[in-house]
Fold this protein.
Amino acid sequence: MKKPWFKRKLFGWGWYPASWEGWLVTLTYAALVISFARTIDENSPRQEIAFTFLLPVTFLTLLFIRIAYRTGETPQWQWGRRKEDY
């Protein structure tokens, strides 16, 4: 793989965007989640919330994780830098 889109976090588990492609994916994900959140209000029935917000956001989140996993560094639990990195 060439330059990773996402790099492993220094503390915890997960990634952060490390290239313009990673930032594009992250911002697109955030914009879509916000747009789905705007489709519901306090008068929305539970079934409508499930089908117009929860299911799409769950699908988007799984897709986002898959993209980060395939285009980023291998995730692992970390708590700071390893001694080999100094």
Q: What stands out?
A: The two ends are 25 Å apart (CA to CA). The helical segments are 20-37, 46-71.
